[in-house]
Design a protein that fits this description.
By secondary structure, the protein is an alpha+beta fold. Helices cover 38% and strands 9% of the residues. The chain has 28 helices and 16 strands. It has a 4-stranded mixed sheet with strand order 1-6-5-2, with no helix packed on it. Helix 1 crosses helix 4 (131-141) and helix 5 (255-267) runs antiparallel to helix 18. Residues 1-37 have low confidence and may be disordered.
Length: 763
């Protein structure tokens, strides 16, 4: 599939050619009838600088066409033109050279297919007589050279203007300039591919024309010219201005509020009102320790008049043992291997190791170093299970780069990354740090894999480039991380990775924690930090990362800083200015409670516990250490499939299955109606209907009922208590009948309240 053309004329260093699709000596004369004659290219044409951009611009080498893994209809090009030598051989030499006819370029199969003169599944891509046509035929006529004498190379590509502030439906034009090794530069706008991250906010066409959508928002637009990528950011603020000095009057607890407010002020978006005390209470409990407050805890906080009660509460929560299991469980998602592959004992030791790091409050940089450089027995050091599961350097490299750098390198394993600067050379050089991981033992024998395995630093082990077969020395993605002679390369990698000079390391972690607390990452997905997926608030991400580094990579300090900001405690109810905002935290973003948190909430509300195999009685859901421990509830609400490859991203959306499970699951009904549960206890108590209703609302919603709720539920319980007293012929004693009726009503109330969005969704 073919597109427009670029031809490079060796120009003076500062010269920009006005028309990049024509060499300086190309001619295009007007005929007597007024039409244009076919373009004639007279100067030498470069394959890499002139022909390949045509292929890339028209999508010939895209993944859906000849750029896919095995090509299309016997013709394969490198994906997006990242391998010029491969593409040249495919066009000129493969298939016995039948794709080109040097003496009659117009008859070449390459040209005939592109112009649809011969049947072509992709249709017509260039017109006969066009500039692209002239360049292709001229190159063939000149003997289809691979390179020209003194041919420069593209060194960089830039967008002339990278920040756009547009009004709804307004248009703007991107301008892309390529810079070359000889100092020349050229406008390549017409040969660049464009992609908007959100077409609803701003769309972009093949010419680089931006069209703002009808609603306020912001997005990024990627421009790709050959193997160079650059990004423009587009913001569409509201046309109605906020009241003068609106954000000067807003309370600010720390730097988070400053940076969020600055961004919202730029977009003219107003923050929602502060959340209620009860909403904050339930939010911070479920976020920090993975459970809702008890009735006593909720009542104490809501009744307190202490102005510092929020800070005191956060300090208390961070010291609770539930904090350890809640956050360790989240990291287990990212690291936990399939027990059928590595063995159940290795998984248990791995899980114990992760939880121990949180018990000791190990700084995040030390946590990463211990994991990356792990040595020893899978039966004694759980961290080495990482290297039992990931057996080859490339497998470890993809996991480590994604978890600890937020760089998804996997694409670069087979070809140049389509949305980033990483090449195959970058990938395998990074993987070389794991080339000398040695193993002793019986290895893997799924589905049992019961034997012990020892991981150690070997003196042998190389990583080769899959195309050139070159042995690659360990090299970081940027900067330097030299490996001293005779040392474990992983030590040098860990030192480089956790260095304050490596912004990626701190950024990906603060972004992950921010997403767990705020409902969405500053970069989304949370572990995909790249230029084409820019943060919604770069200044905020940088400030959080710097704060995290300066705190000694203390996660508790990071959590405390976020949850005590005013931004964290905003209401989730939108106003007329921020209903469409999903990026800038003008309100709290509602999200379904994590499966383990919801399971614990059900246990606490019903005052029953779910029995997990291979766990002690009364164990909590976030203490489950392997997905081989069955739980229909956890599976229904989104715990990762044990057969999926971590790091696992849970699906946060609600589903019909989840709704039906809460409504109809026999186990949940049994727990609500348990003789030792909350409903039975309240029915047997001397509590008044008013006190019972308050107890239920504090237990289930962490708040007190409003007047209507109190009146309605209280009436139901009172009427149930009085129903048998009006029937003097009853053979059942009044007190027994009253208790049974009260219990049925309380059970129905619990069932209805746990099936409400307020229980399932964090507000």
């Amino acid at each position: 599939m073919l597109l427009g053309v670029i031809c490079l004329s060796i120009a003076s260093p500062s010269k920009v050619l006005a028309d990049p699709t024509l060499p300086a000596t190309a001619s295009n004369q007007t005929l007597p009838n007024g039409s244009k004659s076919p373009v004639v290219v007279e100067t030498p044409v470069s394959f890499e600088l002139d022909v390949q951009p045509i292929l890339a611009a028209h999508g010939c080498n895209a993944g859906a066409c000849h750029g896919k893994q095995r090509g299309q209809n016997g013709f394969q090009l490198s994906l997006l033109g990242f391998d010029s030598n491969f593409d040249y051989d495919a066009i000129v030499r493969q298939a016995r050279g039948r794709r080109l006819t040097i003496r009659s370029p117009e008859s070449s199969l390459l040209v005939q297919k592109a112009t649809a003169e011969w049947p072509h599944g992709g249709g017509r891509k260039i017109e006969v007589g066009s500039k692209a046509y002239a360049t292709l035929t001229a190159w063939i006529r000149q003997g289809a050279p691979r390179r020209l004498a003194d041919e420069p190379s593209v060194t960089s590509v830039e967008i002339a203007e990278t920040e756009f502030l547009l009004k709804p439906s307004e248009t703007a034009q991107l301008a892309v300039v390529a810079h070359y090794s000889d100092g020349s530069q050229r406008d390549v706008t017409s040969l660049t591919g464009y992609l908007s991250n959100d077409d609803a906010i701003t769309s972009v066409d093949a010419t680089g024309k931006l069209v703002a959508g009808p609603i306020p928002g912001e997005t990024a637009v990627m421009a790709r010219y050959m193997n160079h990528i650059c990004v423009a950011n587009v913001s569409i603020p509201r046309t109605t201005a906020l009241p003068e000095g609106f954000y000067d009057q807003q309370p600010r607890a720390n730097f988070i509020d400053d940076l969020v407010h600055d961004k919202l002020n730029q977009l003219q978006i107003q923050v929602s009102d502060p959340a209620s005390e009860s909403t904050f209470l339930r939010r911070v409990y479920t976020d920090v320790i993975g459970r809702a407050p008890t009735v006593e805890e909720a009542r104490e906080f809501l009744d307190s008049q202490d102005p510092d009660k929020r800070q005191q509460l956060v300090d208390q929560l961070l010291d609770q043992p539930e904090y350890i299991d809640h956050w360790a469980n989240q990291w287990a998602d990212l690291l936990r291997p399939n027990p059928y592959r590595v063995g159940i004992k290795a998984v248990l030791n791995y899980d114990n190791w992760i939880r121990q790091q949180f018990r000791e409050n190990v700084p995040y940089d030390e946590f990463a170093r211990r994991l990356i450089t792990a040595k020893g027995s899978t039966w004694h050091n759980g961290a080495v299970t990482l290297f039992r599961d990931r057996r080859s350097p490339d497998e470890v490299a993809t996991l480590v780069s994604q978890l600890f750098l937020g760089v998804r390198l996997e694409c670069a394993k087979c070809h140049h990354h389509p949305f980033e600067k990483w090449s195959q050379h970058d990938f395998y050089s990074f993987a070389a740090y794991f080339g000398r991981v040695g193993r002793k033992g019986k290895g893997l024998s799924p589905p049992i894999s019961g034997g012990e395995e020892i991981v150690y630093a070997s003196t042998k082990g190389d990583v080769k480039h899959p195309v050139t077969d070159e042995v690659l020395p360990p090299s970081p993605l940027f900067g330097t991380a030299d490996v001293p002679e005779g040392s474990d390369p992983r030590d040098a990698l860990a030192e480089w990775m956790t260095s304050p000079d490596n912004d990626y390391f701190a950024q990906v972690h603060v972004n992950r924690v921010w997403a767990q607390l705020m409902g969405r990452g500053i970069v989304d997905p949370v572990d995909d930090l790249r230029s084409t997926n820019p943060p919604s608030n770069p200044a905020l991400l940088d400030a959080l990362a710097t704060h995290f580094q300066q705190s000694g990579f203390d996660q508790k300090n990071l959590i405390k800083t976020i949850v005590l900001s005013n931004v964290y405690s905003l209401s989730s109810v939108p106003n007329e200015t921020n209903a469409a905002d999903r990026l800038n935290y003008s309100r709290h973003y509602r999200h379904r409670l994590r499966a383990e948190v919801l399971a614990q909430a059900v246990a606490d509300v019903t005052e029953t516990s779910e029995s997990f195999s291979a766990l002690a009685p009364e164990s909590r859901a976030n203490q489950v250490w392997t997905h081989r421990i069955d739980s229909t509830f956890l599976d229904t609400f989104g715990r990762p499939d044990e057969n999926k490859d971590p790091p696992c991203e849970r699906i946060p959306d609600s589903s019909v299955t989840q709704t039906l499970h809460l409504m109809n699951a026999r186990e949940l009904d049994t727990r609500i109606r348990s003789d030792s549960g909350r409903a039975a206890r309240l029915a047997q108590s001397d509590s008044s209907p008013a006190d019972i209703v308050t107890d239920l609302y504090l237990a289930i919603f962490s708040r007190k009922p409003n007047a209507d709720e109190q009146s309605f539920a209280e009436t139901l319980i009172r009427e149930a208590s009085e129903s048998d007293e009006a029937n003097p012929s009853s053979d059942v004693k009044d007190d027994v009948a009253t208790e049974e009726n009260r219990r049925r009503v309380i059970e129905d109330l619990i069932w209805a309240m746990t099936n409400s969005p307020e229980f399932i969704i964090q507000n």
